[in-house]
């Protein structure tokens, strides 16, 4: 498998405490990988270290690239998603094309086409010319997802991208990620909604206290034993004609 993301023994420390502890991971074309784990498991730190945004030990094929090459290889959507600028939604999304622009920075027809594709994918046609900072928090999140989509990199990495979105927008976003993977790219997305993770990700990586404790198909990862040990949770998991169904039932804390 050609790895679009390759991590080897990646570790991140806060003082003497490891928040990411020797994680190795390979993600190839066609995969939509859900990074799951309780609060404090190390999901955000792992994503940021993999992109070279956080000091780390170990190897990452993305972090080792020069900044310009990195921006052409991986698009990044962090948790922070407030838009302070009073510019049109279309202009915000067009910022995703920055790594590909020629000297002078003017959008070419292919750049405008990429922006249009991102707008359609996130169903933002009616928002195109509205000031981005006048939108609701959930709407701004959709705009920033579209900005990352417009970058059209082989790898997309997103940290809790569906937090704060309404249920329909959450499903739309996860469906978009699935289609991106099906086109031969790769997506790595951290999620707290285990139901959406089970339904839309081709693979799950479960973190607990900085370590990867499970990696595989959703049904193989979301076992009763792991859910109890890692999440202190009892849940219902089944398969239907529409895909996996996962429903938390009881906290065991």
Automatic annotation (TrEMBL):
The keyword Protein transport does not apply. Residues 5-234 form the ABC transporter domain. Keywords: ATP-binding, Nucleotide-binding, Translocase, Transport. Pfam families: ABC_tran. PROSITE patterns: ABC_TRANSPORTER_1, ABC_TRANSPORTER_2. Signal peptide: none annotated. The keyword Chloroplast does not apply. GO terms for molecular function: ATP binding; ATP hydrolysis activity. Part of the ABC transporter complex HmuTUV involved in hemin import. Responsible for energy coupling to the transport system. This is Iron complex transport system ATP-binding protein. It comes from Marinovum algicola.
